[in-house]
Specification:
about 250 residues, globular, mainly alpha
Length: about 250
């Protein structure tokens, strides 16, 4: 029921939570594919810059919206005071954790599918048949789950919207934009290649892109190991914080 409530919450404002992010992401595609198409070195010959951009933009929208869903829901419940009714319900800490994570995954994947379908129809029809659907599904699920967990932590920590916006603006957005969405790390100087590979978001996007082209900046198993380990560690931490009632119980 909590999962149903959370999914219904973002579905009732579909234009704001799903349609708007799709349109915003497609504007990125339209602008950057024209502005940078002749200036970026790609990792695979025969891949147009527009086609290269689409998986990165899809994953970026998945990650940002998964984070936004869980974090905004928690901070709204805390500020309005109705979080107490959820805490009083016979829901285990793991049930609480799973409901918020899966709702964030649902919104992230829904936005990602919208971006991919629209891009295929209007810009890159060659991406209609990706090479590795299983890799796409694995990285999309792990990435959205990881950001949804991070959103729970941000929502628990924040006492007001200003604090949540700070978390979004100074952590999520920079890590997302510096993760290889708009460029291949092979086009960067050696120092920045190394710096990019310290960014966990890079492995999510690079592994996701591998599912479309069968090529990536780092071995796909390396990305899977990094993202999988990060998901397990952050999942354990998030569940523990919920179990302890961190910043949600007196």
């Amino acid at each position: 029921m909590l999962l149903y409530k959370e999914v219904r919450r973002f579905w009732r404002v579909f234009a704001q939570t799903v349609a708007a992010p799709v349109i915003t992401t497609l504007l990125y595609l339209l602008i950057f594919s024209h502005a940078l198409s002749n200036r970026i070195s790609l990792f695979h010959e025969g891949v147009s810059y527009a086609a290269f951009l689409v998986p990165g933009l899809v994953m970026m929208s998945v990650l940002q919206n998964a984070f936004a869903n869980s974090s905004s829901s928690l901070i709204q419940s805390k500020i309005s005071g109705n979080l107490v009714f959820i805490l009083l319900a016979p829901i285990s800490p793991f049930g609480f954790f799973a409901a918020y994570v899966l709702a964030g995954v649902a919104r992230g994947l829904l936005v990602g599918i919208g971006v991919w379908l629209t891009a295929v129809i209007f810009f890159t029809p060659e991406l209609l048949h990706p090479r590795g659907v299983l890799w796409i599904l694995i990285f999309a699920f792990l990435g959205s789950a990881l950001l949804s967990m991070l959103g729970i932590i941000a929502g628990l920590w924040s006492e007001k919207f200003d604090q949540l916006a700070m978390f979004q603006n100074f952590i999520i957005t920079p890590l997302t934009f510096l993760s290889g969405v708009f460029y291949s790390v092979h086009s960067l100087p050696a120092f920045w290649q190394t710096a990019s590979q310290l960014n966990p978001f890079f492995y999510m996007i690079d592994g996701f892109r591998y599912g479309f082209f069968g090529a990536s900046d780092v071995p796909v198993l390396t990305s899977l190991a990094f993202v999988g380990a990060a998901t397990l560690i952050l999942g354990g931490l998030t569940w523990k914080l919920i179990d302890q009632g961190w910043k949600i119980r007196p």
